[in-house]
Design a protein that fits this description.
- By secondary structure, this protein is of the alpha/beta class.
- The protein has one domain (10-298): Rossmann fold (3-Layer(aba) Sandwich), CATH 3.40.50.
- Helices cover 36% and strands 13% of the residues.
- The protein is built from eleven helices and eight strands.
- It has an eight-stranded mixed sheet with strand order 2-1-3-4-6-5-7-8, with helices on both faces.
- α7 (183-194) links the parallel β5 (174-179) and β6 (200-205).
- α3 packs parallel to α5 (108-116).
- The longest helix is centred in the C-terminal third of the chain and has 24 residues, at 275-298.
- It is globular and about 60 Å long.
- It starts with 24 loop residues before the first helix and ends with a helix.
């Protein structure tokens, strides 16, 4: 049965008055995690935006067990906590909540190691596509041609690292993509993942008003636009099968997608693009859809 928003818990795990930026997508993601997993969740968080959002003891703004860890160690620490909870027979879901830097770059070794060992943890990468907390530097998941403080004036010249597909190739029990623009889809995936023993991975698209340079009132609109243009594909792999998630289903048909120009030029980081750049990005999106659909044929 589909999840109903009015049937989700009303308890506040993310407290008001926290120091997040206006329009911060991480708050939407964290609230979704708490509503889906409730008091069973234990968060392991490396350096990043969420380290600031959590606040300073004794007035923390997240009303849940929360452990700050060094940048590269989150998946390893989460694995140890999970083992400890199993030894103590505790009903807990250990969540490694990572940014793109801690997952795609600095912490990728421990992330891959935990996946290979099939550790019983849930990894969520809240991806705002750059190191936003330290000055908007480019990360492995920053899109091609996006401007950051460490990219050339023409934008990033390297391709994007696809974390979800990398985790899929580790052949772990559960992999999915999600978006803060489609909260119920994300919560459904969290609930499914929480029932699986072993390594689970969710790549959460989290548009950042500060780093992407759009108005802070349009965070959810930007997240939805990424899906509606086909730039962010929502899919899920579990029980040995891969499928497109309902919000992305209409956009398998290229003709039903909104123009990618609308998504790109709504963000300051892409306003320098030329027409040929936009055409190349559209081609990359088409190629990605073809690759995903081919994988669905394989995992069917």
């Amino acid at each position: 049965m589909p999840i109903r928003i009015d049937e989700l818990p009303r308890k506040k795990w993310v407290m008001p008055g926290n120091p997040a930026c206006q329009g911060c997508p991480h708050l939407i993601g964290l609230k979704s995690v708490s509503m889906a997993l409730g008091d069973r969740a234990i968060l392991v968080v490396p350096a990043g935006c969420t380290s600031i959002i959590a606040g300073i003891h004794p007035k923390a703004s997240l009303n849940m067990p929360f452990l700050h860890v060094p940048f590269a160690s989150a998946a390893a620490v989460a694995s140890g906590i999970s083992s400890a909870m199993e030894i103590r027979n505790k009903d807990a879901i250990v969540v490694a909540w990572l940014g793109d830097g801690a997952a795609a770059d600095i912490g990728f070794a421990t992330l891959s190691g935990a996946a290979i060992r099939n550790e019983n943890i849930l990894v969520i990468v809240s991806d705002n596509e750059a190191y936003m907390n330290t000055g908007i530097q480019a990360s492995g998941t920053t899109p091609w041609k996006a401007r950051t403080t460490t990219s050339p004036i023409i934008g990033k010249t390297e391709e994007t690292k696809d974390l979800a597909l990398l985790m899929l190739m580790h052949r772990v029990p559960y992999v999915a993509t999600a978006s803060i623009g489609y909260v119920l889809d994300f919560i459904e995936k969290l609930k499914r993942a929480s029932e699986i023993k072993g390594f689970k991975f969710i790549h959460l698209h989290s548009p950042c008003p500060t780093g992407w340079r759009f108005d802070s009132s349009e965070t959810v609109k930007m997240a939805r636009l990424a899906v509606e243009t086909g730039a962010w594909i929502l899919w899920e792999y579990y029980e040995g099968k891969m499928r497109i998630s309902p919000p992305s289903m209409p956009y398998r048909d290229k003709n039903k997608r909104k123009p990618i120009r609308e998504y790109l030029l709504s963000q300051g980081r892409f306003r320098h693009l030329k027409d040929e750049d936009i055409m190349k990005i559209e081609q990359r999106i088409d190629e990605r859809w073809k690759a995903i659909m081919k994988l669905i044929e394989i995992f069917s």
